Hints:
The protein has 321 residues and is mainly α. The chain has 15 helices and four strands. Helix content is 63%, strand content 4%. It starts with 6 loop residues before the first helix and ends with a helix.
Amino acid sequence: xxxxxxxxxxxxxxxxxxxxxxxxxxxxxxxxxxxxVPHISRHHQYWRLLSHxxxxxxxxxxxxxxxILYNVGVQIERQFGSLKYASFVFVSILVAxxxxxxxxxxxxxAGLNHISMGLSVLVFSILYQYSRIVPPLYTFRIFGLxxxxxxxxxxxxxxxxxxxxxxxxxxxxxxxxxGQLYRSDLASLNTYRLPPSVVRFSTRFISPLxxxxxxxxxxxxxxxxEIRNISTRVNEASAQNEEVITxxxxxxxxxxSRTRDGAIAEGAAPSxxxxxxxxxxxxxxxxxxxxxxxxxxxxxxxxxxFPSMEREVVVGALQRR
Length: 321
């Protein structure tokens, strides 16, 4: 799976990773959490209600949230479209911020005074849309418990929900409630779209920073490129080094040059006497018939080695060679 047609999800993943890493490097994590006492009630730092969504203060929460955004957010964005998905993200963060503020006011005396979960509330809102829109691909059973391919994403979300109770549990519940409110017809939240000026600004200045969204194209060749190139080079090398196997003797370089010169001379001025001798001895007929015509040197050499053999037998043996 790639980020094709999922530019907003890729931007969220990259932005969360960068802000969380820089918050840890520069030791400014204390700016990315909110406490009702003393941040809201005493110091009136209401900007923390929005800033705590920008970064994760825990590396394990960041890793699990990135996995969920990649596995779930890409599919939801492709279902919604980038414009509707970006509007959904904006509305979900605003609604969740209001719900978190109300939760801190109501339950800070019961121990719920601190929230520092980053974009976890948005992750659970996306998971709710995922549970309602995307159907399961397959089901299976483990110890009699029926599960499907979506169960792995729910298990990752469960790890975030129980990581730091009670604030993590409250964030999970608020995220699910935000997803329900967006999907319902209450206040027509799902009809809101970002203004065209924001869309043009994002397309012009933010999209180039995200990078390419094109999925890698798979080749239809049976062999990978490296193996195919290696096999091509081996075949070319073997073709160059391949020797022609023949039963004829390899002539000496001097003889080859003399034979070539003689052949050129014959082509230029054919010898009438040689043609007449070939016709008398029958060499022309044997050459046309595809038989090898032995030279006089070969006949004399083989006759000297086997003096008891007749000349016709020697010539026949050389012709069959």
